[in-house]
Amino acid sequence: MAETQKKITGASSAALFQIFRDGQARTKAELVELTGLARSTIQLRIDALIELGLLAPLTDAVSTGGRPSAQIALNPTARVVVAVDFGATKVSLAVTDLAGNILARTSSKMLIADGPETCLGWMVRTIRSELAGLKLKEADLIAIGIGLPGPVEHSTGKPSNPPIMPGWDAFNVPGFVNQHLKATVLVDNDVNIMALGEQKFAWPGVENMIFLKASTGIGSGIISSGVLQRGAEGIAGDIGHVQIARGSNVPCRCGNSGCLEAMAAGPALAEKLSLAGAQFKGKPIAALVDVIEATKAGELAAIQAVRQAGRDIGEVLTTCVSVLNPSVIAIGGSLALAGEHLLAGVREVVYSRSMPLATEHLTVAQSRAGVDAGIIGASVIAIDYALSIESIDLMTGAL
Amino acid sequence: MAETQKKITGASSAALFQIFRDGQARTKAELVELTGLARSTIQLRIDALIELGLLAPLTDAVSTGGRPSAQIALNPTARVVVAVDFGATKVSLAVTDLAGNILARTSSKMLIADGPETCLGWMVRTIRSELAGLKLKEADLIAIGIGLPGPVEHSTGKPSNPPIMPGWDAFNVPGFVNQHLKATVLVDNDVNIMALGEQKFAWPGVENMIFLKASTGIGSGIISSGVLQRGAEGIAGDIGHVQIARGSNVPCRCGNSGCLEAMAAGPALAEKLSLAGAQFKGKPIAALVDVIEATKAGELAAIQAVRQAGRDIGEVLTTCVSVLNPSVIAIGGSLALAGEHLLAGVREVVYSRSMPLATEHLTVAQSRAGVDAGIIGASVIAIDYALSIESIDLMTGAL
């Protein structure tokens, strides 16, 4: 209790550091004024933060009095974080500085179903080689943000009954990684981190938004009052198994029937087109990738299927609009990348079925961060931790 | 910017006061340790807060050294707030201290459709007479929390196209009240404040919950990550016009058809029972009050209608469960008070249609705050403001 309040009220170096997170430079006199702390205390804290490299004096600052005043600011190059976005069949990894600038990036084909040791082992090796390539030490790495394609218990970083991740259930991801690397590990659901990435990339300042991913599965990440919403069990936004009106008799892998995912996700579209005998370039449409290619090429049956998927997704999003009253809905995932057809279906239903007040200032748009949404979002959670009171306290010894 | 940070980092009296909001008593030595401020600064701030009556020395505290130490704590009786809950046809008003203890309360029949001057005029007169009855001055009143039965733009306190409140659209509620009383006025939608009241009364510490009100209309108040969610336009939770599967051809007053409210709210049930010739005690069931009485008395047709309304509401709540992953859904409003039938219908659908992980720790319960949910919630928003940095700054002159 006492420790927490000390941090809140500005007595520690870490609390003082929080003032600099907006990127603005400040003089010691301003810090005395801002915090009410004695000048000698400020000096001590600032010296510690400068020694760690987290703050740095600006050299070009000129005070109104003529003599250059010692302005100090956050030094984003002091440390790095790693962002990792695991999908079902591929993984992307980036090293960024504390401002989110990408210093190095790589990606690889990888089956998440190969299990945590294989996937995380690759991740650890790749982090080491990327750091070495940048001539950085492991001690320069503060945090690793990881997105996984399934439900994750946010507080522990353990996947929770993930349907497409055999071997990962309740696996202690941070514990495993920390056997090899000391950095703090933050794990979240991939759609959650995509929502954060989309917000950071395209909608800074938007406090109420929904990011929808439509691909092999359908899920969403929800930001309300400026905060990513995880819910009581970490599965907020998991809308793939909401029942839609037109599909009550179609069985879903979850055991229920008529679920959104069973009607509108990639495999459902491929199966529907395949059963109807739809072809593209003389070959049957049999998989999600065929649906996307056929749609991009203007194949009518594929376009109609994707547009109807958009309407189905729109039906669920319409309820989300009433419940959450967002100002932005961003539609991402591979189905959204197949042109405007999915988006058109979503808009058709959301705008016709919502109350006017809810759609007056609502933007429904294609994801702008695109394939980078996940990696940007993973860096957001890693940097957010790296600059936090908890993290800076660890570095300063809670001075 | 500088002013905000001064407040955040503990230099002002108001920031120092925030430490006492948990109700715990503290010595000046502890405050020096907690904040890093000089003892002389602490003394100055504490003296100002004691002079205002907001803090008070405890007399029974004994330090480990033998001599009594001067422990100081929040004094909840220093000031009062007023909580007002306007419904369509009645109003409740309470005066509470800063701990939420009700000092006086009253209620009255009143038509919200009589317009803002009439309703708020009654409110101002009643506040004056209640304060006089408690031998309090107007200056003792810090804030007035008001719930209104329609959408409210939270930042301005102006109703926004409220369907059942003629004359109230864009009416400047705080501006009107402040012509008569100086206290800060906070206005919110009635279901939002009921959600806060239900949380305060029955579910302290629950961070993800939905309060549903079913009566003449159907609406919900949403608390996620511990915060009441208002959305981009202040209409989050307004789920009465979500389309439900079974009702696509029933016209709704909103202009669409098949809305939840058109199928499951009180007037819809009364009309359905009336058309079917249902009777109670020899008279036709013609209004919501008849539906409630007939249901309570065990009339089968009424029970069946209420149970089906529960299923319809459950359909929409099932989507809310996927979207928000709450740990509590509390069902309130007059239809919920007609026994367990509404709740039974809600549970039937929510538990059968949701993913196991979402319902494993989900409680679906009747509202426990009952008819007091609104008045408790209105006091919560008023007290929350009264103890805020902004409010205490006003009182201390931002010392």
Unreliably modeled segments of chain A: 1-9
Percent in helix of chain A: 25-40%
- The CATH class label of the largest domain in chain A is Alpha Beta
Strand content of chain A: 15-25%
CATH hierarchy: architecture of the largest domain in chain A: 2-Layer Sandwich
The CATH homologous superfamily name of the largest domain in chain A equals: ATPase, nucleotide binding domain
C-alpha termini separation of chain A: 17 Å
Q: Could you give the count of β-strands of chain A? A: 16
Shape descriptor of chain A reads: globular
List the domain count of chain A as a whole number: 3
What is the oligomer described by this structure?
Answer: homodimer
Mean pLDDT of chain A: 91
Task: Report strand order across the widest sheet of chain A.
Answer: 5-4-3-6-9
Structural class computed from helices and strand pairing of chain A:
alpha/beta
Reported for the largest beta sheet of chain A, the result is: 5 strands, mixed
Account of the 3D structure:
- Two copies of one chain form a homodimer.
- With 399 residues, the first copy, chain A, is α/β, with parallel strands linked by helices.
- Chain A has three domains: 74 residues, Winged helix-like DNA-binding domain superfamily/Winged helix DNA-binding domain (Arc Repressor Mutant, subunit A, Orthogonal Bundle), CATH 1.10.10.10; 131 residues, ATPase, nucleotide binding domain (Nucleotidyltransferase, domain 5, 2-Layer Sandwich); 175 residues, ATPase, nucleotide binding domain (Nucleotidyltransferase, domain 5), CATH 3.30.420.
- Helix content of chain A is 40%, strand content 19%.
- Chain A contains 15 helices and 16 strands.
- In chain A, the strands form five sheets. In chain A, strands 5-4-3-6-9 form a five-stranded mixed β-sheet, sandwiched between helices.
- In chain A, strand 11 and strand 12 form a beta hairpin.
- In chain A, helix 7 packs across helix 14.
- Chain A is globular and about 75 Å long.
- Chain A starts with a helix and ends with a helix.
